[in-house]
Amino acid sequence: MNVAKRLTSSLALLTMVSAITFFMILLVPGDPAVTAAGQDATAEQIAATRERLGLDHSILVQFFHWFGNVLTGDLGTSLQGAGSVSQLIVDRFPATASLALLSIVLSVVIGVPAGVVAATHRGRAIDRIVTLVSSAGIAVPSFWLGLVLVIVFSLSTHLLPSSGYVPFTTNPAEWFRYIIMPAATLAAASTAEIARQVRGSMIDVLEQDYIRTATAKGMLPRTVLLKHALKNSGVPAMTMVGLQVTFLLGGSVIVEQIFGIPGIGALSITAVLQRDIPVIQGVVLVAALAVLIVNFFVDLSYRYFNPKVR
User: Fold this and answer.
1) Taking Cα atoms as reference points, which of 59, 83, 61, 86 lies closest to residue 72?
2) 46, 69, 159, 181: most buried by Cβ count inside 10 Å?
3) Residues sharing a CB contact under 8 Å with residue 156, sequence separation 6 or more, in sequence order
4) Residues linked to residue 77 through DSSP beta bridges, in sequence order
5) What pLDDT is recorded for position 47?
């Protein structure tokens, strides 16, 4: 895999996403100038606001002006007077990032071993249990699971807080108490998907001739499993991890609302309700950038799992 070529294609895709985001937002009903000036603003005030925001120019001029600012890190200003969009996202990003990161760690730490155990005990009781639990994890809606966890661990047992957020830099222990339940809610479906993918990949690999050869040579079962089978089934598993990051970012919108986490998901809902177009554009662009970065590193991981990719 050519890293430079992959990086170039990612930048081109990000540019395309930027353009699509900008032009699709223009289809949203309503006048951004009226939103910024206020519903009770006079025609003169609305015209002045439209000129201040650059909305009196053609669409192409507006796009190139906006995209030029984006390249410098300036995502515009909130129409609701909340300040710089870039600063809003910077302030909210740590909460969403910590939630997504802990969720993907839980998904991998639980999902990979569960898939390996199910594959090595194919057809047995443990395999059926993992398959059943995985199917349930995929089917259960995250909002329902979140509410159940709140009832069990907050309202009934008072073990964990039901809502809120404490930054990791402020108090790591309190951060964990507040974030573990939302992360578990968000990780449930991803854990199930990863477990199913690892199980299927491991079963295919364990049936290959080189696995039988390694076993016939007297190699320890643990070595065969970890050094050969697990590594060679890593590409499909990593692909699934990359896909789950996209779902985690989308699912965080619901989870942040349930648990009162002041992250980007909550910011995006507020922006949609207030028709704050610059904030919506900024959130979409940052989410797309995060997905591209994760997928780029997933592609790099293929070089380790599959030497043919190098």
Assistant:
1) 86
2) 181
3) none
4) 84
5) 78
For residue 16, the model assigns a pLDDT of: 85
Q: Answer whether 194's CB lies under 8 Å from 115's CB.
A: yes
The dihedrals phi and psi of 77, each to the nearest 5 degrees, come to: -125, 140
Which of 6-10, 78-82, 304-308 holds the top average pLDDT? Answer: 6-10
Q: Output the pTM of the full model.
A: 0.79
pLDDT tens by residue, 16-39: 888 887 777 777 666 667 766 666
Token couple for 296: 């780029």
- 21-30: b (≥16 Cβ within 10 Å) or e: bbeeeeeeee
- CA 11/CA 5 separation, integer angstroms: 10
Residues with Cβ < 8 Å from 143, sequence gap 6 or more? Answer: 254, 258
Residues of the chain with CATH 1.10.3720.10: 86-309
| φ, ψ of residue 84 in degrees (nearest 5) | -65, 135
Q: Give the integer Cα–Cα distance in Å for 165 and 160.
A: 12
Rounded mean pLDDT, 189-215: 81
